[in-house]
Amino acid sequence: MTSITQSLPWLNDSWTKLTRQLERTPHALLFTGQPGLGKNRLAIEFAHLLLCMNPDGDTPCGSCKSCQLFAATNHPDMKVVTPLEQGKSIGIDQIRELNRYLTLTPHTSARKVVLISPAEEMTTAAANSLLKQLEEPPLGSVLILISHHPHRLPATIRSRCARIDFRAPGPEEATQWLAEHGATTGVTAALAASGNAPLAAQALLEQGFVEERDKFLIDLLSLTRDGNPISCAERWQKSGSETALAWLQGFLLDVLKASLHAASNKGEPVDWSNPDALNAIQTIAAQVPAKQTAELLEVVNEGRRLLTTQIDERLLIEDILIRWNRVVA
């Protein structure tokens, strides 16, 4: 059986922290990190290990009754709580049902394991209801909260969980992993757009990111000539606001690198996010002062942060592209 650290090697440190003293696992854990690192997959594998009746170190035995139930995906001592619909919150009724579930005696294993993902999608009422379980945890239960944006969780929830922070691998490791999984073109740009998260980059490539990125670049160049920021923003939102702004962030960083590189008069190699768009990058770098590029980059950085709130995405992108138009046109 392939272990989680063999299939996703950058998770090795997190796995080691979790399994070092398995018998002392805290009753509540908070897994944090950007999307696309494998937090959910590691949480499921850890739940398997916690439920196994005869683990071999940090590996489930694979043959006990608990492992058989887990393999059949109907283990009675494991529960996963997620939004009932995409884009919806985790409601209080779901947490009330969870609370009732936790009062029951484990069916097969020595404990119950619950996964809540993404935890920041709980409503305020749901989070307050969960807090009671964290303050007085049922004996033998382990709650694993998985969060892409832990700052959106109430401080009272965060303070009652042992936190495991997941880190993205370095560019070389991420690139090698993607190559081993069949990625050939657009890898550098996809990793830049995903914050170096291999699973997110893989998903982007499978969804046609290379083609979308080319369209984003055409849109930007057209805006320097009489393009329409409003219709452009609508297209970008339909393509995925986070993907569009993540790409724009990497592209602007490339423009800034080109400006600084030209000013330094040094022949040192540059680590480009979009190495196949250097002509456009260098043309824009020659037109726009580095200070203005840096200011626009800050606006995009803030825009990506605001995407985690209830902001109108289309208006946000419109504002960014209007600023781009003013700077470059």
Characterization of the model:
With 329 residues, this protein is an alpha/beta fold. It is 55% helix and 8% strand. It is built from 15 helices and 5 strands. Helix 5 (92-103) links the parallel strand 2 (78-81) and strand 3.
Helix content: 40-55%
Shape from CA axes? elongated
Q: Helix and strand succession?
A: HHEHHEHEHEHEHHHHHHHH
User: Strands across the major sheet, in which order?
Assistant: 2-3-4-1-5
How would a crystallographer describe the biggest sheet?
5 strands, parallel
Radius of gyration (CA) equals 23 Å
Key phrases:
329 residues; Zinc Finger, Delta Prime, domain 3; 5 strands; elongated
Short account of what is shown:
The protein is of the alpha/beta class. Helices cover 55% and strands 8% of the residues.
Topology:
Blueprint: H1 4-7, H2 12-19, E1 28-32, H3 39-51, H4 65-71, E2 78-81, H5 92-103, E3 112-116, H6 124-135, E4 141-147, H7 155-158, E5 162-165, H8 171-180, H9 187-193, H10 198-206, H11 209-223, H12 229-264, H13 278-287, H14 290-306, H15 313-328
Parallel strand pairs: 1-4, 1-5, 2-3, 3-4
Helix pairs in contact: 5-6, 9-10, 9-12, 11-12, 12-13, 12-14, 12-15, 14-15
